[in-house]
Write a structure and sequence with these properties.
This protein is of the alpha/beta class. It has helices at residues 38-45, 100-116, 135-147, 163-177, 192-202, and strands at residues 2-14, 27-32, 64-74, 81-89, 120-128, 151-156, 181-183.
Length: 214
């Protein structure tokens, strides 16, 4: 499967899920600790360097950010399938330098969105492959299981590891989490097509490409 991006644009930001525009398309949310490269991952997926603002200061995302993508999905021997998918960037968690009041306010905002957003189809939970699952990550995965929201676990920053260690570390994370893991590098693009296959299937746009390993 190959995914070409026909268009990618910012749509809206909000501090509560009910302040977002009504769902018009399937949505995929992106969540993770403040230093895992969430914005860089979204930019790599949509092949845009600056669609999602990145910052040297972790925790720059303060609200719910909605982006709309127009896709052309190409499978071998078939005509391209056109689709629209919304991506939602959630505030990063676990960053101690934000005020306690601000950090407390993010909990209800994120939980309200995850529990109540009608268009939400899956949540990408992003983990730094070098650090593995931390307590905040496990709590989020448990919460998603509790509310029956599908989670796609992604290990980022593969390029920070020697090539000989990458598969091993992804396998260790898979064993620790007890669920599939997609390894991705936002720097090199390794794993981008595998992740797109998972997201498109989770959104109900097309079945997963079984020829693309996860």
């Amino acid at each position: 499967m190959q995914v070409d991006i026909r268009d990618a644009r910012f749509v809206a930001s909000a501090m509560r899920q009910d302040q977002l525009p009504p769902p018009a398309f399937a949505e995929i949310a992106f969540a993770g600790r403040s230093n895992v490269g969430k914005s860089s991952l979204i930019n790599r997926l949509v092949v845009r360097r600056k669609l999602v603002r990145t910052s040297s200061t972790p925790g720059a995302t303060r609200g719910l950010l909605l982006f709309r993508t127009a896709l052309a999905i190409q499978r071998a021997g078939k005509e391209p399938q056109l689709a629209t998918l919304d991506l939602v960037d959630l505030p990063g968690y676990g960053f101690a330098k934000r005020s306690k009041v601000e950090r407390r306010s993010w909990g209800p905002m994120i939980e309200g969105y995850l529990e109540n957003r009608v268009g939400l189809r899956a949540v990408v939970v992003i983990v730094d492959v070098r650090r593995g699952l931390e307590d905040d990550d496990r709590q989020l995965l448990e919460f998603l299981d509790h509310i029956r929201r599908p989670a796609v676990l992604v290990a980022t920053k593969l390029d920070k590891l020697p090539a000989s260690q990458r598969l091993l570390e992804v396998a260790k994370l898979k064993s620790s989490a007890g669920r599939p893991v997609v390894g991705v590098s936002s720097e090199t693009g390794d794993g981008r097509d595998r992740l797109w296959s998972r997201l498109i299937a989770a959104a109900g746009i097309a079945p997963a490409d079984l020829t693309t390993p996860s």
